[in-house]
Design brief:
Layout: E1 8-10, E2 17-19, E3 21-24, H1 34-47, E4 52-54, H2 63-75, E5 83-88, H3 100-114, E6 119-125, H4 133-145, E7 149-155, H5 159-172, E8 179-181, H6 190-195, H7 197-203, E9 206-209, H8 238-248, H9 253-270, H10 274-284, E10 290-293, H11 298-305, H12 307-311, H13 316-326, E11 334-335, E12 340-341
Length: 346
Amino acid sequence: MESESMEYRYLGRSGLKVSVLSFGNMTSGWGDGTEQWNFECVDKCIRRGVNFFDTAEFYGLGIAETVLGRNFKQGGYDRDDLIITTKLAPSGFGIQGLSRKRIRQAIDHSLERMQLDYVDVLYLHRFDPEVPLEESIRIINEIIESDKAFYWGTSAFTPQQISECFAICEKHGWIPPIVEQCEYHMFERGIVERDYVPLFDQYGLGTTVWSPMCGGLLSGRYNDGNIPAGRLESSPFTALFRQWYDKHIGSRKEAAIKTLTGLKALADELGCSQAQLALSWVIKNPDVSTAIMGASASHHLDDNLGAVDVMKKLTPEVLARIEDLLGNRPAPSMHWRTFTPNPPRR
C-alpha cells in the first residue's frame, strides 16, 4: 500500500515501484532480542510507506533471513504489497560458490528460511571469479522461469562485470539484470556518479544503495572526529566500520571535522537532523532507486524516515553549498567529440 508521505520510483526498467527509502536487516540475528527489535522496525517502516525489504543469506549465515520471514508472518502483511529481496554469496556456504548446483540449492534454502514462495529480486552477492558468469546467469533465469524470483540483480559488481552480464543475456535471449546494489553516500560517490553512468543511460539500470550514511559516520555522532565509547565492541561488523572510519575520518581528521560540522550547521538552518540531510542528499539523486536504511535505535529509524520530506528542501542553492562542504565531486567523464567534460550527473 502506497503512502502519500513516501516517494516511489521504478526499479530500473521494470514495472516494480519501490519506496525511495527501504529497510535492510544485515545486523539482525546477532544477539538476544534482535527478532522483536527487527519486527518493530519492519512494522514501523510498513506503516510509513516503505515497501522494499532487503536481506541476504550471508547475514548471520541465514539467521537474518529467518528473522525477516518471521517478522512478516507476525505482522500478517499482504505479500502483494511488499518487495522482498535476498542475495546469494560466492563464499561462506561451502566450496561451490555461485555454481549452478549451489544457486539451485541456495534459493530453496532462502525461501524456506523466510517462509516465502518467491522473492521479488534475487541478487548475485559479489562477483565469483571461479565460476563462469554465464553459468550463474543461466540458473538465475531458470529460477525466474520457475517463479521463485521475478527479477535479478548484482551487488558490488564493476561496470565491466555488469556490462558482461547484459552481453551474455543478449547473446542467449535471457532476462537481464534490472538493478545493482552498491555503496553510495556523501563520502563515496565515484561509482554512482561517474562509473555507472553509461549503464544508467544504456540499460536503465536501477540502484539499491547501501550504507547511505557511511555506517553512521554522517549521522552527526562523529563530528568531533572520535569514535564514541562502545561503538567498536560486540559487533560482527567492527572491521568494516573501522575501515570506513580510517578512510573517511581517521586519515583526514581535520578536514573531516570541518566537513561534518559544516553539514551540521546547514542541517540546523534547514530545520532537520544531520542524518536526515545526509540521507536526503542520497535519494535526491535520480539514479538512486532506493536507499537501504538500518537502525540501532527506534528514534534513529524515525529520524531516517523523515528524510523524504527534507529532500524537498534540497534546492540547487542548498546542493551547491553541500558540494562546497564535501569538495569531492567526481571528475566528470569526457565527451570525446567535443573534448569537453560531460555535465555533472547530480
